Amino acid sequence: MPGAMSDEGLIEQKIYTERAQKADAWRKQGINPYGNGFAAAHLAGDLLANHAGKSAQELDEQKPGPFTLAGRVVSLRDFGKAAFIVVQDRSGAIQVHVKKDALGDAAFAAFKLVDVADFVGVKGTVFKSKTGELTIAATELRPLTKALRPLPGKFSKGDDAEAKAWAEKQALADVEERYRRRYVDLLSNPGVRETFKKRTKLVQFIRHFLDERDFLEVETPMMHPLVSGAAARPFITHHNTLDLKLYMRIAPELYLKRLVVGGFDRVYEINRNFRNEGISTKHNPEFTMLEFYQAYATYEDLMDLTEELISQACVAVTGGSKVQYGPDVIDFKKGWPRIPMIEAIRQKVSELSEKDFGDPDKLKAVAKRRAEGEKEKTILDNMNVGELIGALFEQHVEGELVQPTFITQFPVETSPLARRNDANPAVTDRFELFCVRREIANAFSELNDPIDQEQRFRAQLDAKARGQEETMDYDADYIRALEHGLPPTAGEGIGIDRLAMLFTDAHSIRDVILFPLLKPQATK
RNA sequence: GGGAGCGUAGCUCAAUUGGCAGAGCAAUGGACUCUUAAUCCAUAGGUUGAAGGUUCGAUUCCUUCCGCUCUCACCA
Fold it and tell me: Is the CB of A56 under 7 A from strand B?
């Protein structure tokens, strides 16, 4: 018996052993319990779509088929010399009627060793059972794979509210187990399959949307010699033959802008970023980011584009422009408010006048009132004006932004890669999109002045010298690229996982990532 | 790292004031050739996360540890 079972419960071991014995019995009958291929020409969903509407009489006369399909047995009702099973493939699930006289003694004896969770191949014509369900009358049934472990709970095809409630109660519920054994989660929880199909649909829609607008999809390095493109702690790795320290990408930004310099003036990339930071319901160490850059556009153009992209994506993925997210109904129809950051703060903090936003002491005093503990106060004490404005925004505004809202005009101190506003050099031509109290997108007119960029890189080095951990490295080659000329360009990043969360009413990022990072299980 | 909660059969969950650890489903044996969460009869399945303490007696109370979830902090 397999050693892997030694730490498991008696029942699980017993089921495992019994199923393994059935696999052996098949071998004695000349059936390979891990067979090789099966030419399934049809899908359960297609058969249902094409024939479920026909009457029993029509089907009796036409005898459509024979059809062949393959899938997992998710339900089995045995009547001795006959049985109904439900076979599930990627398209759906269809009932199969297995009768001893139709199959023959030998094949029926083999069928008797089929358990729920095994894979089978089936051939037969379709008919309506006495209760009116489209069913395959099996003339052949071949075991394809023996499952040694059972599925949790029990399969129900019922689609009324009561049946759904019952099915939910059957499903695997242990959160850790669901993430750790996603294959069981997908089999057990139909809603999980739907969530990940929606995620795929979202990514497909975004590609289509950008391709249609003449953006070129590219792939840039995931291993970087410098930390660039965002303020975050990186994962560090090493190349042996080059003896080179490398950082896993925290953002593709500087590579994509180099491509704009090179003449690809509309580019995008959908790929993973890696950040060596905390794990939470909103953060996974690797996450998927869309970044796109459009030359000759401004951040204001990108606000228009973002509204189009997300409102249309919402319809494509969910079928409508309104989405239920927890207790809130989010309306993604276009026409989202666009509020400069300082104005958004003033709406919440009435005592701050416009000129106070140049006064660090006043800002500090207001921010400290919401601060808890000495540590936080010390952090505020060391902040400059721009950082204080950012802190006030997080304290008073971010948690209030439920419907899609653009916040614009970020302080220059917190935006090292963004272009300064022409009218007010203290702020940048930048926006972030907020929805359900969190950031969804971040965009700005790119800084394309190499001298200004060089100074901002130096400011990052100073910050690092002061002990700030999340800073960017000085990227001399990027400065050189800017010296060749980056046309006026606007760029944006959208967190795909967080957008998928919105469209699927998922409240943990782990619910939209197939295999989220988990602490390895302790070996006993 | 702080705070809150949880951990009982393969799965989903019970267990009164501290008083014999239970149910449904799954499993096994049997009956059944139209079931839909099939039905009927029978059987088996437990180190109650771990260790210690209080007690005549602990799933229950206490301590420590382990694990997970949520939350705050950190962070896009």
Answer: no
Structure tokens given for A133:
């369900």
- For residues A252 and A494, the answer to whether their CB atoms sit within 8 Å is no
What is the domain extent for residue A76? 3-158
Select the more confidently predicted residue: A368 or A211: A211
User: Is it the case that residue A5 has pLDDT exceeding 50?
Assistant: no
Q: Is residue A113 part of a domain?
A: yes
Residue A7 banded pLDDT, cuts 50, 70, 90: low
Cis peptide before A66 (omega within 30 of 0): yes
- CA proximity to A491, closest of A436, A409, A419: A419
| CA atom of A12 to C1′ atom of B20, Å | 27
A60 touches strand B (CB under 7 A): no
* One domain, residues A420 and A395: no
Establish if A165 belongs to a structural domain.
no
Q: What is the dihedral of CA A172, A176, A177, A180, to 10 degrees?
A: 130
In chain A, the percentage of residues whose pLDDT exceeds 90 is 62
Helix axes A299-318, A496-504, angle to 10 degrees: 40
**Does any strand B atom come closer than 7 Å to the Cβ of A275?**
yes
pLDDT digits (tens, 9 = 90+) for A225-252: 988 888 888 899 999 999 999 999 999 9
* Start-to-end CA span in chain A (Å): 18
Q: Which of A112, A103, A105 is nearest to A140 (CA)?
A: A103
The reply to whether A487 falls in a domain is yes
Total domains present in chain A: 3
Q: Work out if A143's Cβ lies within 7 angstroms of strand B.
A: no
Same domain (yes/no): A47, A58: yes
- The separation, in Å, between residue A503 CA and nucleotide B61 C1' comes to 47
The CA distances from residue A306 to A92, A290, A292, A328, A440, in Å, are: 35, 12, 11, 21, 11
> Model pTM?
0.91
| Residue A178 placed within a domain | no
Q: A175: which nucleotide lies closest, measuring CA to C1'? A: B69
Q: For residues A271 and A252, what is the distance between their CA atoms, to the nearest angstrom?
A: 9
Which three-class secondary structure state does DSSP give residue A281? Answer: coil
Residues A234 and A111 in one domain: no
